[in-house]
């Protein structure tokens, strides 16, 4: 399993995804500010990975706090959470993870006789538990989704929703891994995913690492391959799923979903329950992150466009629920109408 996120005594060790596939380099984020910078700078990315990294950032900030009592620690804790929450707006796992750490902090602070050291160690354990839960969640999700994929043939994925985007195994790629483990003979087609090339750089790298046959295609080639019968299914991840089943995922996902519908190909979304935002009614309410123009105008330090040209660079788009054949979670496979199936499966207790 690719160790993309790891807690150490000296900080949070992160696989630097901006350097893949040519360099396998790890960054040690030794403060919560560095964890925040790593999230903002795409060193760590993918909704589940962002969430767990933020939780570890909270734990690291509290561990390093010089506060001498709980009264001094409380405002510092709130500041740590606010810094991490301000890193990226779309992936709801970030806010889910911070809320879970905040809830745990409040529980600990309310316990009579609780020491600062007890709070520090308990928050570290909470973050580590979230790391382990994510791996187990992805494996369960993969097991639920694997039977939906063809026994043989091409499967298209967009962006990277694999081990690199989680704590291990992956969501969309977890479904693919689960199918391969069941004996399915799958040929993965990975959209390059402009402009950050998560498919070309990251999905291809980790699937080749696992020996799963993979072919990179330019984003504008998907329709042609679908028409030629090379794609039997599409599976993608998600950064936020609204209560009605609308899905926010990497820019370009919406177009892939439309193409899949036109060609009669099932379009599956794989995501843990922490990605589902029941407080957001529809995709229209999901905030869409705008990334810097330089990601479009330049690549590997080389300018590709005329100086001064206008650029739009939304990092995500929203796929309406009507294009989604099924939502695959660790709790099972959900079908339309999603406003009902999501509500019926909603956990009764927080953080389940």
Give the structure's gist in a few sentences.
It is built from 11 helices and 16 strands.
Chart the SSEs and their pairings:
Elements: E1 5-8, E2 11-15, E3 26-29, H1 32-40, H2 47-64, H3 70-85, H4 92-109, H5 116-145, E4 152-157, H6 172-181, E5 185-191, H7 198-209, E6 214-217, H8 222-227, E7 231-236, E8 240-242, E9 247-250, H9 253-262, E10 267-270, E11 276-277, H10 294-297, E12 298-299, E13 302-303, E14 316-319, E15 326-329, E16 332-334, H11 338-345
Parallel strand pairs: 4-5, 4-7, 5-6, 7-10, 8-11, 10-15
Antiparallel strand pairs: 1-2, 2-3, 8-9, 9-14, 12-13, 15-16
Helix pairs in contact: 1-2, 1-3, 2-3, 2-4, 2-5, 3-4, 4-5, 5-6
Uncertain spans: 348-352
CATH uppermost class of the largest domain = Alpha Beta
Q: What structural class do the secondary elements suggest?
A: alpha/beta
Helix run count: 11
Shape: globular
> Into which percent range does the helicity of residues fall?
40-55%
Count of domain modules: 2
What is the assembly state of the chains in this entry?
single chain
Which descriptors apply to this entry?
alpha/beta, globular, Four Helix Bundle (Hemerythrin (Met), subunit A), 11 helices
Explained architecture:
The chain is of the alpha/beta class and 352 residues long. It has helices at residues 32-40, 47-64, 70-85, 92-109, 116-145, 172-181, 198-209, 222-227, 253-262, 294-297, 338-345, and strands at 5-8, 11-15, 26-29, 152-157, 185-191, 214-217, 231-236, 240-242, 247-250, 267-270, 276-277, 298-299, 302-303, 316-319, 326-329, 332-334. It folds into two domains: 5-140, translation initiation factor eif-2b, domain 1 (Four Helix Bundle (Hemerythrin (Met), subunit A), Up-down Bundle); 145-345, Rossmann fold (3-Layer(aba) Sandwich), CATH 3.40.50. Helix content is 40%, strand content 18%. Helix 1 (32-40) packs parallel to helix 3, helix 2 packs parallel to helix 4 and helix 2 (47-64) packs antiparallel against helix 5 (116-145).
């Amino acid at each position: 399993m690719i160790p993309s996120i790891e807690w150490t005594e000296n900080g949070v060790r992160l696989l630097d995804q901006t350097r893949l596939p040519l360099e396998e380099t790890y960054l040690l984020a030794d403060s919560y500010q560095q964890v925040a910078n790593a999230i903002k700078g795409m060193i760590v990315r993918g909704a589940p990975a962002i969430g767990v990294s933020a939780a570890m950032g909270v734990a690291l900030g509290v561990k390093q706090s010089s506060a001498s009592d709980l009264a001094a620690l409380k405002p510092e804790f709130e500041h740590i959470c606010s810094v991490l929450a301000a890193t990226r707006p779309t992936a709801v796992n970030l806010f889910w993870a911070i809320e879970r750490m905040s809830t745990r902090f409040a529980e600990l602070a309310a316990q009579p006789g609780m020491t600062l050291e007890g709070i520090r160690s308990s928050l570290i354990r909470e973050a580590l538990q979230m790391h382990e839960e994510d791996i187990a969640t992805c494996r369960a999700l993969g097991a639920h989704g694997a039977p939906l994929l063809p026994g043989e043939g091409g499967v298209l994925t967009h962006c990277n929703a694999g081990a690199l985007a989680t704590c291990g195994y992956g969501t969309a790629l977890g479904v693919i891994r689960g199918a391969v483990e069941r004996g399915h003979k799958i040929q993965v087609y990975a959209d390059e995913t402009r402009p950050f090339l998560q498919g070309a750089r990251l999905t291809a790298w980790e699937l080749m690492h696992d020996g799963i046959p993979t072919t990179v295609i330019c984003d504008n080639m998907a329709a042609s391959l679908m028409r030629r019968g090379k794609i039997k299914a599409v599976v993608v991840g998600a950064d936020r799923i609204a209560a009605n089943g609308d899905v926010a995922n990497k820019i370009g996902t919406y177009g892939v979903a439309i193409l899949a519908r036109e060609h009669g190909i099932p379009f599956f979304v794989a995501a843990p329950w922490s990605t589902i935002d029941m407080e957001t009614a529809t995709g229209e309410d999901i905030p869409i992150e705008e990334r810097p123009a330089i990601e479009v105008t330049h690549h590997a330090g080389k300018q590709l466009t005329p100086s001064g040209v206008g650029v739009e660079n939304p990092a995500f788009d929203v796929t309406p629920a009507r294009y989604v054949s099924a939502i695959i979670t660790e709790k099972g496979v959900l079908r339309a109408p999603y406003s009902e199936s999501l509500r019926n499966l909603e956990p009764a207790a927080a953080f389940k």
